[in-house]
Design brief:
Blueprint (H helix, E strand, L loop, with lengths): L2 H10 L12 E4 L15 E7 L4 E6 L4 E6 L4 E6 L5 E6 L9 E6 L4 E6 L2 E7 L2 E6 L4 E5 L5 E5 L9 E4 L5 E6 L2 H4 L4 E6 L5 E3 L11 E4 L5 E5 L2 E2 L5 E2 L2 E5 L14 H5 L7 E8 L2 E7 L13 E6 L2 E7 L1 E6 L5 E5 L18 E6 L5 E8 L1 E4 L1 H5 L27 H15 L3 H7 L5 H7 L2 H10 L5 E3 L2 E4 L7 E2 L10 H10 L18 E2 L7 E5 L5 E5 L4
Antiparallel strand pairs: 1-8, 2-3, 2-30, 3-4, 5-6, 6-7, 7-8, 9-10, 10-11, 11-12, 13-14, 14-15, 15-16, 17-18, 18-21, 19-20, 22-23, 23-24, 24-25, 26-27, 27-28, 28-29, 31-32, 32-35, 33-34, 35-36
Helix pairs in contact: 5-8
């Protein structure tokens, strides 16, 4: 649910003072919002957060929506009870001027109970919501009748420990490890039961980074997003899984398919979405908002089961599945809206698209930060079908910055690409008659002809009286948002396709761009020009 904000917050390990839990109070959850009302909607199957609007919204199986609660602070760790009757969340740390609170919404009555809670994280242990005191000394249990019970831990934990996920008989806690022992931002996973007894979440003491945790619908397993940090904009995330009472854990490597390669996430990547679906997990990977370019195609989603990844689409911050074919997709905005000064420092916000059992799609809400299906919905989800990997069989019609490619130049590029794919050296020599000697020499080798196919699979850029493949040969880009040369989706694809190197930091003004600047080397440039009479000519390599 929390994506980048939770990862950064816990990696920084902020300290919060511990105080006793105060009395709670009841209030209506809020008047109706969306396309439904309290007289016509059914039981909720999912909840989602609209932080700018300041609300949590519920939706039923038909896509009808209504406001569950108004928010005074951003909602953190939004969790469903095992039976789907209750929704619990806590205020983001430091976000509520009245002090951090835990909120428990009874969805049948739409009554909200809010209780002061100087605590870290929340998860359900059975039907009770459990939180960890800010000093790491005890668990707090919140019952439906408003009563709060304190269970001192058998082994006190650190001030930076947090509930990672709930479970049927225990909760998982991410307990920070000393930096001198385990390195920066590392945790150990332990479990604690209703009595407060702490046990190692085997293997004992094994370090892991932690950003977000989710329990399986049956409460027997957990998954969490790791978050290894090398600095503010240099973070690498992945997924870890473990089962209560079972030794060991799974640490699958990230996917290495065409979709992941094309997203250019090899050394900087975050988990933007994580949810259980049936016996597996849906996982969305993407760049770090605020540090990298964020075109929709750079976010790639997978289904993970039994250690195997299945590509299920791109352009989603998160994706989840329910029973009877229901699905929810939080879409990456094509053009992220600029934030107003008085808004929270949100991650990317997108439209939430819901698919009902009949396959009809509904936009449930705009500017959504996160959503979560009820455990029953997630448990009944079928494994999603795989989606074909992205590929391009023909020369692009538009350049790397969206400009149309002149038809006569594109036609010549396609003839060159076809000849190279057919490994037809004679035809290539004829097409390259006016080319430079280096280009003609490369065409004599099979490797040179294969490289030509790759070059002509990239997006061209316009030059004076011609085009060049890739377009980055004519104009470089920077993998950093809101810059004059921020990389487009096409340029990100071309960098990954051609393995275009980062420009030597000494060749550009590092005070202007803090992100990676990309520009292809000379041998990665193919130049087509318009000659006399308007004919297209292949002139070899492009030398600016």
């Amino acid at each position: 649910m929390n994506r980048l904000r939770a990862a950064v917050r816990w990696a920084a390990a902020l300290v919060v003072g511990a105080t006793l839990v105060g009395a709670g109070c009841d209030a209506p959850g809020g008047d109706d919002a969306g396309n439904g009302d309290e007289r016509t909607h059914g039981a909720p199957v999912l909840a989602f957060v609209r932080p700018v609007a300041g609300e949590i919204v519920l939706a039923d199986a038909t896509g009808r929506t209504w406001r569950g609660a108004r928010l005074k602070a951003e909602a953190d760790d939004v969790r469903w009870s095992p039976d789907g009757s209750t929704l619990v969340w806590i205020d983001e740390e430091g976000d509520n001027p009245d002090g951090r609170r835990i909120h428990r919404l009874d969805v049948a009555t739409n009554r909200l109970r809010s209780t002061p809670c100087p605590c870290h994280g929340v998860g359900f242990l059975g039907d009770e919501a459990a939180a960890l005191t800010a000093d790491g000394d005890a668990l707090l249990f919140f019952a439906g009748d408003g009563k709060v019970r304190r269970a001192p831990l058998s082994v006190p934990l650190t001030d930076y420990a947090t509930i990672a996920a709930g479970g049927r008989d225990a909760v998982t806690i991410a307990n920070s490890l000393p930096e001198e022992k385990a390195g920066r931002g590392q945790f150990e996973m332990v479990s604690a039961d209703r009595s407060g007894t702490v046990r190692p979440f085997l293997p004992a003491g094994a370090p892991t980074s932690f950003a977000q945790g989710e329990q399986s619908p049956d409460g027997r397993r957990i998954a969490w997003a790791s978050f290894d940090s090398g600095g503010a904009c240099w973070n690498v995330g992945n997924v870890r899984l473990a089962a209560y009472g079972v030794k060991g854990r799974q640490e699958p490597d990230r996917p290495t398919d065409a979709a992941m390669t094309g997203a250019l996430l090899k050394d900087r990547v975050l988990v933007s979405g994580l949810a259980w679906a049936g016996r597996g997990l849906t996982v969305s990977f993407g760049p770090q908002t605020g540090c990298q370019a964020v075109p929709p195609g750079r976010f790639v989603s997978y289904y993970l089961r039994d250690g195997r990844w299945r590509f299920i689409g791109s352009g989603m911050l998160a994706v989840g599945y329910g029973r009877q074919g229901r699905a929810a997709r939080l879409l990456v905005p094509e053009r992220p809206e600029p934030q107003k000064p008085d808004e929270y420092a949100f991650p990317l916000l997108g439209d939430l698209v819901f698919t009902d059992r009949g396959g009809e799609r509904h936009v449930l809400g705009s500017r959504v930060s996160a959503f979560v299906f009820t455990p029953a919905e997630a448990a009944g989800a079928a494994a999603p079908a795989a989606v074909a990997q992205p590929e391009r069989a023909r020369v692009a019609k538009t350049g790397d910055r969206g400009e149309p490619v002149p038809a006569h130049l594109r036609a010549l590029a396609q003839r060159i690409r076809d000849a190279a794919e057919d490994d037809d050296a004679a035809r290539l020599r004829a097409l390259c008659d006016p080319c430079d000697d280096e280009t003609r020499a490369a065409l004599r080798t099979s490797e040179g002809r294969r490289e030509l196919v790759r070059l002509l699979s990239s997006h061209p850029g316009r030059t004076e009286n011609g085009i060049v493949f890739p377009g980055l040969a004519a104009h470089r880009c920077v993998d950093e948002p809101a810059r004059d040369i921020t990389c487009t989706a096409a340029q990100i694809n071309d960098i990954a396709l051609l393995d275009i190197p980062v420009v030597d930091s000494g060749t550009y003004d590092s005070d202007t761009y803090s992100g990676y600047v990309y520009e292809p080397e000379l041998e990665q440039r193919l130049h087509l020009k318009t000659g006399s009479g308007g004919t297209a000519r292949w002139v070899g390599r492009f030398a600016p």
